[in-house]
Amino acid sequence: MSKVQELKIEARTGRGKGPSYQARQKGLVPGVIYGGDAEPETINVDGHALWLKVSAGHFLTTLLMLNLDGRKTRVIPRALQLDPVGDHPVHVDFMRLADGAQVKLEIPVHFRGQDISPGLKKGGVLNIARHAVVMLCPADKIPNTVEVDVSKLDINASVHLEDLALPEGVKPILRGRDTTICSIVASTTVREEQKAAAAAATAPAAEAAPAEGAAPAAAAAPAAGAKPAAAPAKK
């Protein structure tokens, strides 16, 4: 589960490109807090502190407590804009989360047990249908990942959304459609080996059994140059 982490912020006066540019020149990242009953707030976040949160992973599913001169607001990041060249944050959006709030999030899927899966050991391939699943989560019970165990899957077996053990209160949004998360399918090599084995198993029986109504095999012809057998002498 995501734990609430504190992040210090400061108020940003003014909106638009000018104030945002000035903030970035000071090593700050401009942002916005919105949602709930309050008006949107423009803020600045220390760029290094924000980057540490982002680089730790699962940033968009991490609960944060924003601290503005002692006034704390519980939020969750909703959007993060990165510089296309430097790949560092240039803008961030936060959504306020009141007590008892629920939030719709895209939770990444994590697979485990590939090293002991019987299907994969036989040469099968893990076919991933969904790398993330949209969930409706209580703010206090946001999972970092959806865990999928494939350790017991054989070839042609699959895992569906309803097979997963989700935290209490967490509900998938996906309904009325194919809910397959992953499956193990036979690779091209495995399929060819299966075809070859099946053909080899049926071939001896086909060769041993003569076709119905077939004439008996003709007697072997005499070897080239061999003399014909002498006719019996007349009495």
Structure description:
The protein has 235 residues and is α+β, with helices and mostly antiparallel strands. 18% of the residues lie in helices and 35% in strands. It has four helices and 13 strands. The chain has a six-stranded mixed beta barrel with strand order 1-3-2-6-5-4. Strands 10-7-9-12 form a four-stranded mixed beta sheet, with no helix packed on it.
Give a concise summary.
By secondary structure, the protein is of the alpha+beta class. 18% of the residues lie in helices and 35% in strands. It has 4 helices and 13 strands.
Looking at this protein, list some descriptive labels.
235 residues, alpha+beta, 6-stranded mixed β-barrel, 4-stranded mixed beta sheet, 35% strand, elongated
Helix content: 10-25%
What is the element string, with H for helices and E for strands?
EHEEHEEEEHEEEEEEH
Record the strand order, biggest sheet: 1-3-2-6-5-4
Helix-strand makeup class: alpha+beta
Query: Which residue ranges are poorly predicted, with pLDDT under 50 across at least 5 consecutive positions?
Result: 217-221
Give the helices and strands, then pairings.
Blueprint: E1 5-11, H1 17-25, E2 28-34, E3 41-46, H2 47-55, E4 64-68, E5 71-82, E6 89-96, E7 102-112, H3 118-121, E8 125-128, E9 132-138, E10 146-149, E11 158-160, E12 171-172, E13 180-185, H4 188-208
Parallel strand pairs: 1-4, 2-6, 7-10
Antiparallel strand pairs: 1-3, 2-3, 4-5, 5-6, 7-9, 8-13, 9-12, 11-13
